[in-house]
Amino acid sequence: MDELKQVFLQESNEQLDALETLLLELENRPDDETTLNGIFRAAHTIKGAAGMVECAAVESFAHVVENVLDRLRNHEIAVTTKLAALMLGCTDHLRVLVANEAGVAQVTIEWIEGQSARLLTELGEYGPGGQVFATPKASESGVERIPSNRSGHNCWHISVRFGPDVLRQGMDPENFLRFLETLGNIQHMETLADVMPPAAEMDPELCYLGFEISLESSVDKQAIEDIFAFVRDECRLSILPPNSKVADYIELIESLPEDSLRLGEILVRVGALTADELAEGLRSQAVPAGAEPPETLQIGEILVAQQVVQPELVAAAVAKQAQVSEKKAQDAKLIRVPADKLDHLINLVGELVIAGAATSLLAHTRRDGELIESSSLLTRLVEEIRDASLQLRTVQIGETFNRFHRLVRDACKDLGKEVELVIGGGETELDKSIVEKIGDPLMHLVRNSLDHGIESPAVREAAGKDPRGTLTLNACHDAGNIVIEVADDGAGLNRDKILAKAIERGLVEPEAHLSDREVFDLIFAPGLSTADQVTNLSGRGVGMDVVRRNLQALRGTITVDSSAGHGTRLTLRLPLTLAIIDGFLVVSGNRSYVIPLDAVVECIERPASEHNRNYFNLRGQVLPSVCLRESFGLPGERPARESVVVVQYAGQRAGIVVDRLAGELQAVIKPLGAIFRHIQGIGGSTILGSGEVALILDISALIKISGQAEQRLIARPELRNA
Amino acid sequence: MNVTRRAFTEDFTIYRASELKPRLLAAIGEGERIELDLAGVERMDSAGCQLLILAKREASAAGKTLAIVAHSPAVQSLIEFYNLAAWFGDPLVVSAE
């Protein structure tokens, strides 16, 4: 795919996203002008971009959509649910067309053509005068309309007198006019040669031709003018928009060299005016105008006076200019950067952090005060650079959330439910690479909630609840993680049903006693679905296990809370970034380990009395503890004084027993090789300033391990002192 | 009636316009009714079309009749595009399409 196409794909998708959002907004506020204009603009931009890359299929389809939108904008047709749904369908189809053009579509050409034809027929109902748009032929750009009976009032009127030299310059008026035909349908054309002098003076190489043309087309004035761009300076061109006032035509007549009456007749013939309008207009013009000479005129007014542009067009042009400069200002604030360049930068910053740490270490060993001072300044700057460069990759999650408006809307229509989507914490930022990977799991969860969680309005009403269900998407930061919640106020999980299904599938023993949370965790087991009916949304029993696996791949977790009759809440926890963390360095058995600093709550000395236990007493609170020395089977003697680092994760606290505390550091996470993937309790590795490798502890896994160890001991107390 | 018939086979284009103008005007001077046979004209552009307009106008001004009795496809196409067929008033072969 060439570069232009790539940009086209990206930009079109952005515009399509905007279009979709606006269409959804329009459903709620059908009279909002700004929204309507935004929709029209988005469609127009897509069409324009498609034209640039010569992508006829997208262009012609977008053109039809734009026509309908234009009528919508002009209040010729009203916004209805049906129309909004159709427009959303068109948006989807445009997406497919764009993807197809970029060579990434997953559907067949036949399917696309079928879909095009279907949508165009539907769109046809909204076309001018209920006219049906013809299906575009595969190879042809532009859309043909079945010509209606002469709709002169709907036509542009183009009046052009070619300059005498155009023929000599090798430009034939015929070519320009033929090209005009590509913009629309020439309803009528009158050729004028009145300015041709008597035979003796007539120079056969000069052009004496002029034309009055009535063009049926939905293009804008600029497009028509562009056709004459090459001869713009040579010719006298006036373009009157459709539905121009009679007075405008009269002015046109007067400004032209030919005899007014003859021109008037021509205009009547062309269909621009009726005979009565012409007579009336000419009469009123005969009254002399006031003798006040115009003072300093705006360029727009001058152009209007000279018949170059129409007043309404000037207003439109001014508005358009404002829009363009606004967009430019916005564009200037944003720079597109390829992701791999950013990744390279982050890598470099990572190396810089390591090198900085080495320098700082060296300064401390040398005991050189000035060097220490300058290296600490360096460290601070490096930290800022690190944060700033990581920021470059972060995006707000709101955009991901907003996509679900459409999903919820469509699913509600399919399922006959009423659901309101409430979004919170959309401004929460997280790494782009994570955002990309989290979209699918989130979609699964939202679908599940809609399909199984929230009941139908009748059932809800019977249960004394608001018939309109609520689905909440929320995001926030918590201890170096991002927490995303998907909550509904539906029926909640059916504990007995899940348990029965799990027993039936042999996932648990029939006599096992499981806590609520353990039972709910079963929904993540492969092949378990409690849905009585499989719908096209969900219920096939694949999904939740995939969701969990996807999250685990991102070092994230998912937990589920549910209460019967009140709803279900799924909580996802994900690391903010995958690259660099602030760490806390600890030493056990002469090996260094890094604990993510965000997880550290406090550090205390381990009382000698608690040496052989897997729990400890923190100001009266009993917390499980895990001894690194024991967990990892480290060699060497236990030191006389051990320390406990109290860590917190997902609301749970635990202590990690270590030999020695060694202070804070920045750790550039280097992923472990595939061989080590199954080791529990280790999340990655990093290189210290000294060049030594330190392992980064996976706190969530350690807490789990310590909890399990304690449970085993409770079950079999005789092991405790073994 | 004195009928003059002239057949043209060269292109009615800007390149030949200077040469064609005197020949056309000369033809008008030769008879009461001038018939132009343009069946052999392979190409015609706006300059050529303009010359035909001139010829027709001059003939009318002199009280004579100028008729194009045979059109080549190129001539017919341009005259139709410029919507001048009625003005010339010559019978044209309506194509089947």
Oligomer: heterodimer
Assign a percent range to the helix content of chain B.
40-55%
What fraction strand of chain A? 15-25%
Distance between the termini of chain A: 67 Å
Tally of structural domains of chain A? 5
Helix content of chain A: 40-55%
Strand content of chain B: 15-25%
| Backbone shape of chain B | globular
Q: What is the top-level CATH class of chain B?
A: Alpha Beta
Give structural notes.
The complex is a heterodimer of chains A (722) and B (97). Chain A has 722 residues and is of the alpha+beta class. Chain A folds into five domains: 3-130, Up-down Bundle (Four Helix Bundle (Hemerythrin (Met), subunit A)); 152-285, ACT-like. Chain A, domain 2 (Alpha-Beta Plaits, 2-Layer Sandwich); 339-393; 395-575, Histidine kinase-like ATPase, C-terminal domain (Heat Shock Protein 90); 580-719, SH3 Domains (SH3 type barrels), CATH 2.30.30. Helices cover 45% and strands 19% of the residues of chain A. Chain A is built from 22 helices and 21 strands. In chain A, strands 6-8-9-11-10 form a five-stranded mixed β-sheet. In chain A, strands 19-12-13-21-20 form a five-stranded mixed β-sheet. A five-stranded mixed β-sheet of chain A has the order 14-17-18-16-15. In chain A, β20 and β21 (693-697) form a beta hairpin. Chain B has 97 residues and is an alpha/beta fold. Chain B has one domain: STAS domain (Transcription Regulator spoIIAA), CATH 3.30.750.24. Helices cover 44% and strands 19% of the residues of chain B. The longest helix of chain B has 16 residues, at 46-61. Chain B is globular. The termini of chain B are far apart. At the A-B interface, α6 and β2 of A face α1 and α2 of B.
